[in-house]
Design a protein that fits this description.
Number of strands: 13
Radius of gyration: 19 Å
CATH topology: UDP-N-acetylmuramoyl-L-alanine:D-glutamate ligase
Order of helices and strands: EEEHEHEEEHHEHEHEHHHEEHEHHH
CATH superfamily: Ribokinase
Strand order of the largest sheet: 5-4-1-8-9-10-11-12-13
Shape: globular
Number of domains: 1
Helix content: 25-40%
CATH class: Alpha Beta
Distance between the termini: 29 Å
């Protein structure tokens, strides 16, 4: 019998179809490359990342009644990740098209399929799983009502509510975003949050290159959002952490209101899913490092994300906690 989950991930399952080539095709151009397919989706990737850090995790998502749905169930069983799927027989299981170039950069299109039907009622029907949860994770790659239910139930259970606001979703209301204790956007999503919550187009343009901004300016932008703690992932530049105020800083036992975490040296070949690896690694570290400063959890998340880029694919590329420790050492 599976241990009670300490992390609940509510989100998307997507079957990834990935093409790798030397450089991205120009409009109208055909390039020769290689192809692979495998399990993915922001929610599922994050659940796999949590699970492989050794923390009991449960995934809640939606699939169709088709061959890709069977793949989702089979992979979950093979790796021992408990997963509850809302079956949507009138919709296809989600699928993506991913193109990766020789530098490891990517271009992605997703057909959400059944994810757009993931219901709040289904999430609420799994309330028993939330009783022992310390962290609840969700994203915006599924029906918004399901994400809202997940964060609301996190609050009710006294768990940490972690929102990865990806992908940019214009249907996401401000009240959903403000339910999160921790928010983990990349630079593009950070700019979208500024547009969505503040309506400031000029500030949003600045946020698109957040890594280049001085720390005080970046902290000011984060503080204007009014969110308790924002962790902006900066890709090859690492991550930036900003607490809204001294109370938020004290809650997470950090020694500074804002700080950067340096990138880890890796030989990246595919950055697809690195942001998911970060959010999953962060959630896991909040459990096994409970009571420690947030900075330590962010360092671990950064390492999980970095190591994931050395393997092609998304969910299968999520590294184990042992692999992270072997590569980077430390806590």
């Amino acid at each position: 019998m599976a241990a009670p989950p300490r992390i609940i991930v509510v989100g998307s399952y997507v079957q990834d179809h990935c093409w790798t080539c030397d450089t991205f095709p120009l409009t109208g151009e055909t390039r020769i490359g290689t192809f692979s397919t495998g399990p993915g989706g922001k929610g599922f990737n994050q659940a796999v990342a949590c699970h492989r850090q050794g923390v009991p995790t449960r995934f809640l998502g939606a699939i169709g009644r088709d061959a890709l749905a069977a793949t989702a169930r089979r992979f979950s069983e093979e790796i021992g990740l408990p997963a509850d799927f809302e079956e949507c027989p009138d919709s296809a299981t989600a699928a993506s098209s991913i193109v990766v170039d020789a530098r490891g950069d990517n271009r992605i299109v997703v057909a959400l399929g059944a994810n757009a039907l993931l219901s709040a009622a289904f999430v609420r029907s799994r309330a028993a799983h939330f009783r022992d949860a310390r962290v609840v994770v969700t994203q915006l790659e599924n029906r918004i009502e399901a994400s809202h239910a997940a964060l609301t139930m996190a609050r009710e259970a006294g768990a940490i509510a972690l929102l990865n606001p990806a992908p940019r979703n214009p249907d996401a209301p401000a009240d959903l975003i403000r339910l999160a204790d921790l928010t983990t956007p990349n630079e593009t999503e950070f700019a979208w949050l500024i547009e969505q919550l503040l309506g400031d187009a000029a500030a949003a343009r600045d946020a698109l290159d957040a890594a280049a901004l001085p720390d005080d300016e970046l902290l000011a932008l984060c503080a204007r959002l009014g969110l308790p703690t924002v962790i902006v992932t900066l890709g090859a530049a690492g991550a930036f952490v900003a607490h809204r105020d001294a109370d938020a800083q004290a809650r997470w036992r950090d020694d500074a209101r804002a700080y950067r975490v340096a990138p880890e040296p890796v030989a990246a070949i595919d950055t697809t899913g690195a942001g998911d690896a970060f959010s999953g690694g962060l959630a896991a570290a909040l459990v096994f490092g409970a009571g420690r400063p947030l900075r330590e959890a962010v360092i671990h998340a950064n390492r999980v994300a970095a190591l994931s880029t050395e393997t092609r694919g998304t969910a299968p590329a999520m590294p184990t906690r042992e692999a992270v420790a072997a590569r980077f050492g430390g806590r």
